[in-house]
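Notes on consecutive records. When two proteins share a document, each keeps its own sequence and its own token line. Never mix them. Below: protein one.
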Amino acid sequence: MQASVESVAVLEGHEERVWNLAWSPSGSLLASCSGDKTIRIWGKEGENWICKVVLDEGHTRTVRSVFWSPCGKLIAAASFDGTVSIWSRSSGEFECVATLEGHENEVKSASWNAGGTLLATCSRDKSVWIWEVDEDDYECASVLNKHTQDVKKVAWHPHKEILASCSYDDTINLYREDDDDWCCYYTLRGHQSTVWSIAFDTTGDQIVMIKL
């Protein structure tokens, strides 16, 4: 028997293309980001979904992706302006508590590890950065330059401190910490075109990717 899918809401408000969506860990909030340089936070009131907050002061160019921290109190937003903004939620209000700089070009993706102690970012500048997180303090722990082209997505293993990245160079790299630094320990090859996105399953035993 084929399952049916029903549209329950159409969320309108962004003025340009919507690039990415992310559910909060609790599933009660949805974050969206757009070419209009804003992030919108959506929630349900009664039977209706409404825009609860518009975050419009963090970036000067397209916001490419948004990612919630495991605790659900932080959002990382990656932008074409070369920065990543960190938004903290307290009592329903969001505040930009940090702006991460260093990438030389468009930032495409950001991802927290399972413990919320590490944040990975990647960019068109071909690099992957790993940031150590201590409350509102973000320190770059490593800059990884294994890819030869634009890096499209980063994703952490759900249980281990293993990071995956995919790129316009048709490869997927896997990273882990070794002697107080991070290194690429395996490269998945075989695709003949850009790998646009990657995701681990809940066990971490399998990884799926999108290519065109």
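Protein two starts on the next line and is unrelated to protein one.
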Amino acid sequence: MTNLVARVRRLGGRRDEGASAVEYGLLVALIAVIIAVAVAALGNAVNTQIDNACDKISSSDCNPPKS
């Protein structure tokens, strides 16, 4: 019986606990992509809001003369 238990344990192979460096790298890459998409989307939204505000005030007042 002990021999059978030992064989089953060997068949299971090595079980690593936790994430490897490759998995952490994939997570970091995924997070970077999500951040880039969020910044691009928010940047466009903010730019649109500023343009709308400038149009409401007047297009010439938003761009002060350069000295």
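For the record: The CA atoms of residues 51 and 59 lie 9 Å apart.
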